[in-house]
Specification:
248 residues; mainly alpha; 15 helices; elongated
Length: 248
Amino acid sequence: MKKLLTYILPLLMITAVSGCGRKDVPTLLGHAAAALEKGKPETAQTLTEKAIHADPENADALLLHALTREAQEDLTSAINAATKAAGLRPDSFAAQYTRGRLCAAAGNNPDALYALGKALELRPKDRNTLILLANVNMRVNPLNAMRYLAMFPRNDSLWRSAAYRNQIGIGMILNGSLKKGAENLRDAQRVEPKNPIYLLNMARFCDYYAKRTDIAVQYYQQYLKLAPAPGNSLYKTTEARLQRITGR
């Protein structure tokens, strides 16, 4: 969350406005941003609600309110606030990007792609926007995902990174290039051998595409050793799959 705030908060155009009650809005938002950075989303929410009450059409107040709701895992409220902010300020990169990111997290692919597309128009080479557009398109249109990955600014260290190789590998596999896709997944896993997601992607490739369940079992087992707590839904799904193919 702190990294996200570092990216978003400087983009907010918090300016003083005239009128009864509105003069306090910049101060409220400043305190709300500080509270959110300190890990106090409930306090930040109270402050943003006061700001919105004083100035209902303040896009920055709505956008910061969206972040407070996200921090409390209320994606529906967060998306509603970000959508209002984007409607009030369609030319705001921060509003469009935040709406798109939240919709992507909620699995609302059409709205995510629309908002992120608007964000990319406003900031054509923004790396975070390109990453999200690639991620969402992996779910709905893998060919488009590859197009966005190819739009990344030329950067050899990025292209050699495990995260990039992993995404390229997934895109290639989904587009039918199994051999090259597998090579990229292996590259990602070699660069970061203890990254559970890269291990899981290798396991799933071996399981569902290469039909080598014997190798998949090894990757699944490594993933379960390194994955987050057993309560994680992905952990449970993987555990169930492993039991199914091993018969125990």
